[in-house]
Design goal:
Layout: E1 5-8, H1 20-23, H2 30-39, H3 43-50, H4 55-65, H5 70-75, H6 91-100, E2 105-109, H7 113-122, H8 124-127, E3 132-135, H9 136-139, H10 146-156, E4 163-167, H11 170-178, E5 182-185, H12 189-198
Parallel strand pairs: 1-2, 1-4, 2-3, 4-5
């Protein structure tokens, strides 16, 4: 049975995310920048925010471990939107085309709730096209846990087979498939357009 709605991931599907975009402005040497993002403000550390931990707690803990970097650590939360340089090429027009065609659009994102709120407001032109967005930090559930997909489907009013899920991470695609959703890995807008056409969304 063909899906009737598209459910997007946000980071690296709708919008690029790269902490270097912010920290390149704050750390002048490339090697020091790489070490800082590998050993201090790492993606593993940041994942706590996606899971619902407040930045005030995680930054205090990290600053206690790396007091020499406390000022840099403190920039992560309030300037998180500066880590997002803009939309992925071709995606705003593709989202607009789907919405204009009446396709129901939703999102499930691993994202800190406190970081997402200002970003959502900043990018209203894109996100106002979505009927609902499930944010992991608000739910304290993260992809690829089956529970976040099941919660989202219930909230969206969709049966699993009615949703086509799009994510750049293969484990998240597999997680969606495991609960019965159609799912495709994201690489770029042109490839996704072909997949959407194959599933009957676009001509």
């Amino acid at each position: 049975m063909r899906p009737i709605a598209v459910v997007f991931d946000i980071g690296n599907v709708l919008y690029d995310w790269d902490p270097k975009v912010l920290y390149r402005r704050l750390i002048s040497h490339d090697e020091a920048l790489d070490v800082f993002l590998r050993d201090v403000c790492s993606k593993e550390w940041h994942f706590q925010h996606d899971a619902g931990r407040p930045f005030a707690e995680t930054s205090a803990e990290l600053s206690a471990r790396f007091p020499q970097h406390a000022d840099l650590i403190a920039q992560w939360g309030p300037r998180f939107s500066e880590q997002i340089p803009g939309p992925v090429v071709g995606m705003p027009s593709l989202v607009a085309e789907l919405d204009d065609a009446g396709v129901p659009l939703f999102a499930i994102t691993n994202f800190s709730d406190e970081f997402f709120a200002p970003f959502r407001q900043q990018e209203a032109a894109m996100f106002d096209r979505f009927r609902d967005i499930v944010v992991s930090g608000a739910e304290r559930l993260v992809k690829p846990d089956a529970a976040i997909y099941e919660l989202a489907l219930d909230r969206f009013g969709l049966a699993p087979h009615e949703a086509l899920f799009v994510d750049d991470r293969h484990e998240n695609v597999a997680g969606a498939e495991a609960v019965g959703m159609h799912a495709v890995p994201f690489t770029d807008a042109a490839t996704l357009r072909a997949e959407l056409a194959r599933h009957g969304f676009l001509n």
